[in-house]
Protein 1
Amino acid sequence: MQIDCGNGIVILLTGQLDRARVKRDSDGLGIADVKTGGAAVSQGVAKTKGHAPQIGTYELLYEHTTGERITAPAEIIGLKTKGAPEVGTGEIIERMEREGVVTAADSNGGREVLDAAVVDAEFEEIKAIGVERFAGHTLGEIAIGAATKKDVFDLGWLQSRFALTSDEGERVILQLLDQGVIVLEAENADDRKLNTYRIVKKPGEIALDLE
């Protein structure tokens, strides 16, 4: 897919969009993405800063792949994984309007950028955001490592194999479930730590930069 940015600048977008979280409301079709972490939610609102370029790319790829137009604002669903559990949502364009970065949509859905420096900073922040690690491993490294060793595993094996704490192990399992790498194989009614999970993706199907 080629994106013409004007002034002779063309971005070639390669790869594959294997799935997308889609929401439908009165504004039409939109993209929603789940973000986890210790600072993913603040005062009941999901953090949206720094995610605009990534979600915008998802919107372009979804339109290109399906032929359906995205008309609703993108939404971040935040899951706080450290301290007191907290869940929140936030719309990216709503924050940018509130902060005076862009204008409200006109009759055609178009917007004017009022503060290009802030938009540029959104892209710079992506470069600065560190990938979350669990005992020194990225989520992708753990997923690929597990897929090469096991078909079915439990929390105890995951902790032992990758030197994870119980909290880290549970966060990894939640994220692997969310990413479709694993599914629940057998649920233990007395203790969820004894649940078993089946790996449904092969190592070659798992992205190393999985998040």
Protein 2
Amino acid sequence: MTPNLQDEWKRHATRFMTRWLVMMEQRCRVRRERDRRISDLRSAVATNVTQEEKRNVILKDIHITEAAIFLKIAVFSFDEKQRRVLSELQQDYSLLGDVQWFNPESDIETLKYWIDSDGHDKALCAVADFA
């Protein structure tokens, strides 16, 4: 977990999420990492996303996307707009195609399958699938 992700977590955490995080930390299941900016991703957004609204959608939570790319971790988010806009950018920034993005509400069956595979099925819920 990066400092930016920790801040995001604190802003949106429910009681259940907070208890879950504490339990994961007690089991040494939370990896602490520093924030990393991916300058070529940010350049791709600035160059290829011409609609200001879509650019703002991406930049609002770009730290989540950067962590997913750099740390090779899946994203779990209810933000369908973010996922859709990133899928449009994927043709100009190919690393987005490797990002797995699960919506805990709409991807329930796929998410269960992914969990059963211990997260090894990298083909599930790729951002590229939502273009």
Protein 3
Amino acid sequence: MRTYPSSQTFILKDQESAMTSPHAQPRDVFHENGEVVIDGPDGAVIAMTPEAALRTAGRLDEAALDELIAAAHRSGNTG
């Protein structure tokens, strides 16, 4: 059985570097004991309730699409 922090704990070892250099690899996600768990970079782990995970997934989807559209506008590839 895996052990990980409680569902209200977020671990990020080097917050400054995470804010300045985005990670290009998708994260592994699984469910266990009623929680959705995200294995982050460098040992970071996020555990969420299923409801929080769904809301977060929607926010990630929206933010990613917004950034892809903004990047296309910046590069002049709007269609």
